[in-house]
Amino acid sequence: MTQAPLSLVWFRDDLRLADHPALTAASEKGGKILCVYVLDTSDAIRAPGGAYKWFLHGALEALRDSLREHGGDCLILEGDPVTVIPDLVAHTGARAVFCHHRYQKQARAQDEAVAQKLDALDCAFNRSHGTVLRNPESVTTKTGTPYKIFSAWWKGFQALGTPPSPLPVPGQLKFQDVTLKGKKTLKPCALGKALLPSKPDWGKKMGEYWEHGEDEAAELVHDFAHEALGQYDTGRNDMAAEGSSRLSPYLRLGVLSPRQIWHDCKDKGRTPDRDTYLSELGWRDFSWYTLFHNPELPERNLKPQFDKLSWRRSPKQLLAWQRGQTGIPVVDAGMRQLWETGWMHNRARMIVASFLAKHLLIDWREGESWFWDTLIDADPASNAVNWQWVAGTGIEASPFFRIFNPLRQAAKFDPEGDYIRRWVPELAKLPKESLAAPWEADPETLDKAGIKLGRDYPKPIVSLDEGRDRAMKAYRQTRSS
């Protein structure tokens, strides 16, 4: 009996075994499988940020542990995938490569280049949809033009029915060992050296907040679906509570699939809280849909009128924002949470983004770039869509003149000041009435709390009223020019 040929499974943003259509398709061929991950060192795709690389390291190690439990492993290489994958195919004699579709223009172009080289080697290139709920081309308007409004897209999405149920881990996995001895073009990757920070080891602190691995992520989904989901509609905006799912990092790297989360939450019965959360998963798909149809999303305003906006250049104020030293406590709390944990509460993300783009009038792309480097869950679609949403420059965007007032946001979503106290501890002794705006506190209150503004905590780097007026003036100029 002829043995089925070897297949490669090329892992990318899908570092799991369950609900992995590419792995399932490879296992169904009946032959042995070689799993591979390529740390892309080419210039074809935007280099990952530092925080993402830290989380990637843990996720890859966890994936290898999972594969070893099934008798396999993951070969981790570095280089240009357009060269590495065909070279690996030629070296091993594999007759098929399995992976998942990618939706970013540059990634799709890279995959097409790989496909052409594999075709010349008589090796099939099989792609499945495994990182989103639905293929971005499956939700269409009657005219065939892309949706520009989430609510309309969401109706179209729901009209297609429930997303398919997640797949189990394939039952029959047979793995191939491979030696790379003498293959100079196939360079094994030293994960720690390539991905982990060393001097200083700023990632060490993040390890206190995150666990890696498919089993750990599945446990988080279970806990969320049975606890916080029941109060999600209101609890998600309580900045000091654990009301959000905190699943975005696992979605970003594909340690979890969106279908797994969808079905775990859907099965809890229809409630406003559940429906709100499912629409948040929908927003993630909509972000990829938007990037697919607007490849320039991370670099260009999707509303051309804002190309005329006169953004300010202020390296000093940008640095103060990055370091959580703006003198606006709720903004600084969010930025410090980001720096320490690699993640930020969603309400805080909106507040800090609005402050940068509106009150400081600094280009949203500066913020998008900082989030790209410091968020463990930063992806090309959601990061850019959400920044353009807050800045008012993109699809489905909040109007530019909608400027978040940090004091009102703190009063509404951190009424007891617990979030600010947690992340801006130098203000912890202030009464809650003075916590959001310490510059308005009387000298006696500040003295009692042991605070001297400008010494223990910065004075505001901008007057909120003046910043708002400046932003509105700049906005009006874009409309009149």
UniProtKB/TrEMBL annotation:
Keyword Flavoprotein included in the entry's annotation: yes
Domain Photolyase/cryptochrome alpha/beta: 5-133
Pfam families assigned: DNA_photolyase, FAD_binding_7
Cofactor(s) named in the record: FAD; (6R)-5,10-methylene-5,6,7,8-tetrahydrofolate
Domain of life, source organism: Bacteria
Alphabetical UniProt keywords: Chromophore, FAD, Flavoprotein
Residues in coiled coil: none
Protein name: Deoxyribodipyrimidine photolyase
Family that this chain belongs to: Belongs to the DNA photolyase family.
InterPro entries: Crypto/Photolyase_FAD-like_sf (IPR036134), Crypto/Photolyase_N_sf (IPR036155), Cryptochr/Photolyase_FAD-bd (IPR005101), Cryptochrome/DNA_photolyase_1 (IPR002081), DNA_photolyase_1_CS_C (IPR018394), DNA_photolyase_N (IPR006050), Rossmann-like_a/b/a_fold (IPR014729)
Gene3D superfamilies the record matches: 1.25.40.80, DNA Cyclobutane Dipyrimidine Photolyase, subunit A, domain 3, HUPs
